[in-house]
Every structure is written in C-alpha cells, then in structure tokens.
Amino acid sequence: MFGIYPAGPRWATRFMSTISAEKVRDCLVEVAGFAVGTLLEPFGKDRGAVIASHQGFLVMVETDLEGTELIVVPDVQLQNLLWSMNSGYASQWSDREIKILTGCDNWDDLLKDSSHKLKFIGSIVEQAIEGKLVKARPITSSGATPQPADIGNRGDESWVPSEYDYMVPVIDGDMSCAH
Known about the structure:
alpha+beta
C-alpha cells in the first residue's frame, strides 16, 4: 500500500492495472516521452518505486497479488513546497524563491500549474493502462492518414491531448509554468 505523501492525498492519483508495471512504463517512455524511472523509493521503503517521471511528477508502482497499483504524485521538491502551502508556511517563500524553484510567478500560478500537470499526467497514465495511448502517425504525401479519434496530428512528437495545446512543452525536465 502506498503511504501518505507530504503534500497530502489531493496531490495523488491512484490507478489499478491488470498489465505489468514494466509494460505501463515502456508505453509511457516510448509513446509519451516520459523519463525512465530507476525504481528509486524517494519517500521511503514500501511507499512506491518510481517507474517513470514527467514534468516534475512521478509515476510509482506497488505490486501485490491482486494487480498492479500505480500512483502519480509530485516529486519530492514539489511535495515539500505543497506541504509548506498546506501547512500554513507559504509566507516563508517569496515569489522570487517560488520563481527560482519552479518557474512559476507565485503560489497561485504554482497551484494552477501543478493541478493541470497532475490531471494531464494522470490521463496519460490512465490511457497507457487501458492500452489507448498511441503515437500519432505522420502524414503521408498522398494526404492525411486516419488518426485515432483522441489524438491530433503531431508527427513524431509525444502524444498530447488537444485540450492541452495551451501548455508549453517541457524539455529536459524543465518545470517552468505554462502561461
């Protein structure tokens, strides 16, 4: 069972999978461009091992006899910042410090950005579990190739749902806010 994380249950999204964690990880890495996890347990023993990460969020796994349970949570740095906010210590962080640490201008921007990323990454994990996450196929010279219904034409880029077109792509783990 996963533990309680510093930021609290609001910042955790759980999934049950009938497919192996390795298959979920491979799909997230190969199709969605997530970074491979090293099975590190950043929150301590038996609190989840990282199989993949993306935009400052971790996809962690715990396997038991009933299936594979996965969880998406913010990384340790963001967990600690969110804990500060939730525990009444937000005033100890200046807007400049928030900007340096996260790329966001202030707490409001950080909370909005983190909420969007948690939902976005959770939807990608859910699609990987359901076998619905596929790379878009490139357009051929004879015209457009039919694409899966929920995927826009994005060539060889990682899949991003159209409702997230306003988000700035994150490169090399940059966690700056999308404005």
